[in-house]
Amino acid sequence: MKILDFAIDVERAEQDLYLRLADCSADRSIKSIFQMIAAKEMVLVEKLRGLKCDPLHREQELSRTPKAGGVMRRRKNDFCELLDQNEVRDDLSSYDFILRTEQLVYNLYVNLKDNETDSGAQSLLDLLLNEKRQEIDRISTLYDVARVIQ
Prior knowledge:
single chain, mainly alpha, Ferritin
């Protein structure tokens, strides 16, 4: 499987998750947080699509195709249950849930890189890790501001 295709699929699944959680929430603040983060995921997807135009990156394959996670294969009602299961009841708990989700994806990319033997694939995964780390840092900053405000 091509690395960029896999990463685009993962990031789009994250975006879909956040949009579904926004739909489930009756709280306007929580809804807007999930919608904002979903929009940020789309920015990353567009960056990845742009990389596919670069001949150095578009053909880069993973040596092993990773298995997809179960969170992204839920029925609509299951997404709503995630809010209750993770006690997402306010801004802070929303950001906490998002940060944990983003960290899981970051860890996925780390594991892929650690198991990759091709240096070109490792470089591309480094690029993905850098983008994901920046995303996590931005969300962490929003979380810190929300904590100060509350």
